[in-house]
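Figure-free illustration: sequence to structure, shown twice.
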Amino acid sequence: MTDCLYLTDAYLVQCDATVVGLRDGGVILDRTVCYPEGGGQPSDTGTLTSSDGGVCAISGASKSSEGVVHAVAGTAPPAVGTPVHLAIDWRRRYQHMRYHSCLHLLSGAVFRRFGAGITGGQIYEDRARTDFSMPEFNRAVAEELIAEVNRVVAEDHPVRVRFLPRAEAERDPSLVRVAAELMPEVDQVRLIDIEGYDVQADGGTHVRSTKEVGTVRLDRIENKGAKNKRVYLVLDAPPDGPTARG
């Protein structure tokens, strides 16, 4: 299996690794900083440089039973056993991190006010949407929730990662906001802790403080069913530039 370094440090943008498998035209590495698509967050992209100097593009990544599969574009993948250097597109990753943390803030605001959970969502580089199981919703309520999110952003809460045994996490309904079928089969549940505001299970990458999210603006809302309400968000540029780690 692949050692997924992004689970504990989302600011790592590169690492040395070894090819341990080939699958569907892609490579499986023993370790990676590349986030594989999942939970509404797109995969990272980047480059893979072999020990002989050959460079190939990584167009995406996905999860498999053998580890993270890195899709190689435009060239043959390096052979099993090849030492490689993996580097991701930091700008793309950082945008995903900002939007993902923003959605957690919105989820926290909705859960505090309505006790409602998440039914779906999707993150892009320039926008995001999320769905909640709520019977009543309108533009005025959505604007109030966004104002709450911006308040927490301005307060600059630390955002931390911690782990909890699955059985313990399942005993606290506030931690698992997604529908049961969206919860992965894992023994240790990864939690995103927005200190002093919200804690919930999640496998994606996040900023290290709410200030990095920047100003949140409501784009639009949609009624997707009797209880399913959809919110679209956009972010302004953050007040400070991102700092990646090599």
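We now fold a second protein in the same way, so the two outputs can be compared directly.
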Amino acid sequence: MSEAGDRQAGRRDGEAHGVGTADEGRVRAVVAATRMISLEPDPRALRHAPETLAEHVKTAVNAAFEDLRTAVAADGEAPVIDPLAMARQFRSLSDDLDHRMTAVTGSIQESATALRRDAEVPGELPTMEFGDMFGQLADLLEIIGGVPDGEPPLGEGTVTGGWVRVTCEPGPRVVSMTVQRRAMRGTAELAGHVVAAVNAALEDLAEKTRELRKEAGADPEKINARIGELRELGVTRMEAYGQAVSGLMGGIRPYQ
């Protein structure tokens, strides 16, 4: 079996889950989107030194989360969206839209200049000012996806007086795990300790992420309010542009 995780993701009770293995299949982990479901260690895995076993378990858990992400994408489910990546796309759209708007405005100017030979054309030509709205959306997405000073939060989880300690980073991904010999008395005991510690770390990570995003201005109420403002701004600008075009067309008068 692959140390990177077998592609065995599926569903349990309607919930997508991922599967990862390590130590030639002797350690098997199952995860859902935000939690670990189970650990299935073969009794032979308990023969390892605690440090080696912890590394195998960490590999299996991370492979399971990667398996889940791959399966979700393959099934066409709504993917986990990276706000910062989307922000970069909006900034690119903003630059492209500004360029296109400049070209369209220039074309309108040329047409108006040609038309003035035979008709009176109002001096004020409408301009389309929508490109900066993508920039404002990008600003908002960067607030949602960012954290102060760009430092990612780390979640910490421990059980039974430190018999198993886990540190997770966004992804999620386990970055470190320690297992004491006392946690290796049996496969069921080990599985229970690891699942509890991983889930405690994931919960701590989620809470720290919420707090950091709130500090960065990503409070849900403020975000929703800002989204509403941008929506209204878009409607207002569309109406203003439509009225300007209508006024331009209505103001054209043939020379007598």
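Summary for the second example: The longest helix spans residues 83-115.
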